[in-house]
Amino acid sequence: MKIISSSVLVLFAILLSACLPEDESEAKGANSVTRGLVTTVVSSEASKITRVYPGVLEPSEITSLSFEVGGKLGRLDLSIGQRIAKGDLIAQLDDAKFLTTIENRQAAVEEAEATLKQAEEDLERSEQLLERGAVTRVSRDEDRTAVLTGRARLKQAEENLVTAQEELEDTRLLAPFDGIVNSVDTDSFDTVSAGTVIASAYEGTSYEVAFSVNFSTVNQLSLGAAAKVTLSDDPDTVLDAKVTEIGERADTVSSFPVSVTLADSQGRIRAGMAVEVSFQFDVLGGNGFLIPISAAITDQEIPETAGPNSPSPVSFFVFDPEDSIVRRRDATMAGLEDNKFVVIDGLNEGDHVAVAGVSFLHDGMNVKLLDPKE
Question: What is the pTM of this model?
Fold first, then answer.
């Protein structure tokens, strides 16, 4: 009888183990692991969905300031953001030529007055001579015509003088309201024509925010709809607003322009501040469950258009208490609220939904339900 040495037995054992399938041994090891499971219990509901859009505060109306006459500007002492009061001098033109025009037209008025006076005296004399038969009616009528002509010329001269005086007043550009300088569009001593924008200003009491929304959202909005405007630099400041413009045509593909106007304003508000505009919409079907975003299985991409009228698929791992395993559950969400999915179908109240380590889970995996306090 032959005796097998111990070294041969060791070598045989090594070769035998090498022939075992690697995936089988790994699978046995994997199935033997029971992972702890952190869950949230489906309970909290939401009947509203909040949609938020970034934007910038802008004045509701900006007024362009310009002269009604042309000329050479004087020194322009304006700066952007400068506060102005109604009646403040914004800019002034060199008025030398306007003063000269007034003097000339004043002289024309005086000349027309003298001419008319002479014509009236001639007419009076012609009337007297006509009574004595010393002049003809034709001569008298000529003098009467001269009076009428003189009066017309005097009226025209007086109107020209008034126009010149008004143009002199127009060389001073005054603030039409209490407000804030938005832009300065010319430089000191420029020669400008009538209508050239010198500066622009706004009242600082009414602001709006313009932004774009997708097709789903624009169909949920109407003129006058309520909105909230939150200052990005001060989230505690939330102001009421309402929709004042809804674009019928998209600026870009499926991106429709919308504007909201603040119902009130505060002294701390400034044009150019970053804000967030939020709307609340009813949840499709009446209400939904709030589930943390971290619970979603990451092999799905949530469409950016997901919203109240555009429900989208989403999947979760739900704990099965009978078998102590997790099962993949397909559901439907209709937007976000407080950074949580609003799930309108696929989950039931009391379900335990995995919220941590979701990427390490798989359908049918053995788990141990952990106490949230652990």
Answer: 0.61
